[in-house]
Every structure is written in C-alpha cells, then in structure tokens.
Amino acid sequence: MSSTRGGSPYLLVCEHASNHMPESFAGLGLDAETRKTHIAWDPGAVEVARELSKALDAPLVEAGLPRLLIDCNRPLDAPDLIPEISETTLVPGNHGLNTAERMARIDLSHRPFHRRIEEVIAMRAARGQPSWIVTVHSFTPVYRGVSRPWQIGIIHDEDDRIARPLIAALRQDMGLHIGVNEPYSPADRVYYTLERHARPRNAPCVMIEIRNDEITDAGTQTAWGRKLTAILKKYQETMRSAGGAYPYA
Questions:
Q1: What contacts 140, CB < 8 A, 6 or more positions away?
Q2: CB atoms within 10 A of CB 131
Q3: What is the predicted pLDDT for the residue at 248?
Q4: What is the CATH number of the domain that holds 205?
Q5: Distant-in-sequence, close-in-space partners of 71: CB < 8 Å, separation ≥ 6
Q6: A Pfam family name for this chain (predicted)?
Q7: Is residue 219 part of a domain?
Q8: Peptide bond into 59 cis (omega under 30)
Q9: What are phi and psi of 223, to 5 degrees?
Q10: Dist CA 62 CA 58 (whole Å)
Q11: Whole-structure pTM value
C-alpha cells in the first residue's frame, strides 16, 4: 500500500506496517494471538506514519505483509530475513525452506515493496521533487528480558542531517528519554531500506523508533505524529530558507 502524491520533500516508509497473514501460509504454525504481537509487525507504527503523511503532505509506502513471512528491512543475505526464531518464539512455517520457497517469499513481498519505493522516488524526481526518507518503527519495552528505557530512538549513520535537529528538538522535552542509535543502530543491519534507497542518492534519511507502549491508541499515535511533524516541518523550512528551494536529490 502506498500514497504517491504530496508536496513535501519527505518520503515516509513503514516496513513493518501489517500483521496480515495470507491464509495459504496457515499462520506459519503460530496461533492468532501470537501473530498479533510485535514479532509479526510494529504495533502503532503505521498509524503514526499515516499521521505524518497527512500532516506533512508526504507520500507513504507501507509493507502489506508481516515480517514473519519476510522482513522487508533486511538484505537478502541476512540470517533473519525469514526468521526461524523471533525473539524467543519458534516459527515452524519458516523452518527448512528450500531455495524456491525463499524466492517465492522474496517475490511476494520484499521485491515489490522495494520496487514501489523506487517507483515513488522516480515519479517524484520526474516532478523535480527530492525524497528525504523517514522510516517509522516501534519497539518493545522489554526484549529478551532486558528493559528498554527510551521512549523514542533516533537511528542514523554518518548522515545525520535529519537526525541531528530531530534529536536536538526532542531533547527540549525534559520528560523524554531519547535513545540515539538505541535500541538499534545501523550496525545491527536494521538500516537496509535507507542504505538501499537514500544513501546512493545522497538523500537525507533517518529511522524513527517509538516504544510501542507510547502509541497504543489513536490519541497517543496522533500526539506522537504531531510532535514529530512539528520538528520535521521546522527542518524542512530551515532547508528551504538555506537553499531557496529544497536541496538534495
């Protein structure tokens, strides 16, 4: 699913937007309640991404299938591309896949998802629009028994053009515990979408991780969307003022 129109220089991406499992996969051997948890998707993330898309007038590309089938934010050689274990949960339907079965998963979700991002970037470039890529995720308060105190994490590599002002603005809220390259960093191989689509184009990019107990309902999802919108709009206007138009391809 995606929306392609929008006057903003931002392009939003939500790789773990859905826990919808096609019936043909028989739930990968997992019960329905397990498939509702974070191992299948990032709860709350797509709602925040949609709020940002609407408020920023920015396109949004969403993955339509769960990361249990295949993780669209992983390179094809990643060991957790099709996870046999997710956190501590065994995924029976992912064990013992042959090459043809793995390729079928790639063709079903991974390849069309990234093709769609490429198409949106190309359409925008043809209109003279840059694509500053922001990916939106959520994370659990506890992972493998370890507490994660950050309410939001800003993930970036050496390109911190969006991350730096985003972190600075969030730090103005003294009540927030902000993670910088926490709970993940690019070294954890969680930066694939941005490495593939932003870095070759020198496009500003950032990965936003919100703790999922912060975005459990429409009110909190909207509140976080509005908070992030205000910061991203300020950066957008700063860059417009500095360059006369939006810099960066």
A1: 38, 148, 211, 212
A2: 26
A3: 65
A4: 3.40.630.40
A5: 15, 16, 78, 80, 81, 82, 83
A6: FGase
A7: yes
A8: no
A9: -60, -45
A10: 13
A11: 0.95
Of the listed ranges 2-6, 16-20, 162-166, the one predicted with least confidence: 2-6
- Would you say residue 246 lies in a domain? no
Exposure on the CB side of residue 228, measured as CA atoms within 13 A: 32
pLDDT digits (tens, 9 = 90+) for 30-44: 999 999 999 999 999
Total domains, the chain? 1
CB 113 within 8 A of CB 62: no
In this structure, are strands 85-86 and 10-14 parallel, antiparallel, or unpaired? unpaired
The mean pLDDT of the chain is 95
DSSP state of 190: -
Angle at 143 between CA 193 and CA 139, to 5 degrees: 40
Q: At what angle do helices 45-56 and 218-243 cross, to 10 degrees?
A: 40
What the block records as the tokens of 79 is: 């060991």
**The tokens of 100 are what?**
């043809």
| Residue 245 maps to a domain | no
Per residue in 8-21, pLDDT (tens digit) is: 999 999 999 999 99
Query: Could you tell me if residue 122 is inside a domain?
Result: yes
Q: What is the mean pLDDT of residues 197-219?
A: 98
CB under 8 Å to 225, separation ≥6 — which residues?
47, 48, 50, 51, 52, 55
Q: Within 13 Å and on the Cβ side, how many CA atoms surround 101?
A: 10
Q: Give mean pLDDT, residues 124-152.
A: 96
Domain that holds residue 122: 2-240
